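Record type: monomer structure entry
Structure origin: computed from sequence
Chain ID: A
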Amino acid sequence: MAEERDRRSEILAAAFEEFASKGYKGATIKSIAGEAGMQSPALIYWYFPDKEALFREVVESRMTKAPLLRMVSDPEDVMGLPPEEALKRLGRAYFGFGRLDRRALQLFLGEVIHRPEMGEAFMRIGPGRVLAFLEEYLGRWIEAGSLRPHDTRSSSRAFMGMLVPQLAGKVFFPALAENGPTDEEHLETVVGIFLKGLEAKG
């Protein structure tokens, strides 16, 4: 059983390298098998029914290791934190994904653009979980009277939208990051603006 798990992990690692360097279309089951040190490409089908299923599992295995997704998948220790602290922690984890796995982010977003059918899977695994966490978190603080009543679906999207240019400057557009704020400076400003707009009127 352990050997089977190890072999599966080896295939996923090899598949990521092939997909990251060649894209979904360029990578083949044969090239992935070669990267994994397997004599026969047919052995991959013992673990995955087809290339599409293999790619989806590569996406899921990489995404779920990201600090941001680990945080929102087990959120109870964050739910009780005051908004300023929790939102900064969320922002740091978000920026951390770009630093830790830049190639993965480039691969997944590139495939979402070129293969719209991947958008749903990517959204479910990543952004969807983050937004669901934020909606619940902000809802709790509305109930506590710390934030004014509002549609948390919109505020969650607004907050994450304010973080996107900072990460994009690191991963895709270095010119955007030139002379820009540090992550901490950006978070300080963004969280301040965001919470000022949601202050409870007393």
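Annotation 1: The mean pLDDT is 85.
Annotation 2: The CA atoms of residues 69 and 127 lie 9 Å apart.
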